[in-house]
């Protein structure tokens, strides 16, 4: 017994006529008759009462018809489901990130991906850069998002977007009323920055901007968490230069002022293993980098 034979049975049960059933199945009548006979032999019961004038379902045939419809429907659902899974449109993605990426457009990009592929489950985990690379290499993570070029040996780096640095000041700072700020005007300020081992690209870009303007910044404190930087600036301990997207959805008592002659050089980067066999990963990559 196979699905094709059950399909023959279902069509004959619906038509109750060997000729019409064979025509509907696009086969000749003898193969249909043999298939039904073999099915009856396999089950050890008569499924149809046959006379010269009519074909009727037996009680066993009526029961088999109910079960057959269910099985064929289930197989169609399974086939459809497997096709979706095989294309990577269903499954699971394990995504890592450093905290600073959540203050970029990354959450919106991930939301867009989830809306396009609702059957792909997303599992998020926040980790330091080094841990993210380890998790990707050992296969416990599919993709990771960072704000720093890490140049890993066995991983791919895909730039998703870049943005400029923006000045972050306390509300009552003497420069807080300006529409744009020149880096040179910040020469005598105390700076609150990311620690270099947490955000080397942001830290190095900050130093380069100051150096290009002819001074070495006075760094009052280096923090490992974005919220620590913002709170210290809010409290008046200094100012900071951070990616421009930090200003979005922020309700702290801070002023975010663009820099004069800004340069788009702070990246949002996706890390992944090229050999990763999870087909959902490629949907993610194509969606957020398009």
From TrEMBL:
Pfam families: HTH_1, LysR_substrate. Residues 1-58 form the HTH lysR-type domain. It comes from Flavobacterium nitrogenifigens. Coiled coil: none annotated. The keyword Transcription applies. Keywords: DNA-binding, Transcription, Transcription regulation. It comes from the Bacteria. This is Transcriptional regulator, LysR family. GO terms for cellular component: protein-DNA complex.
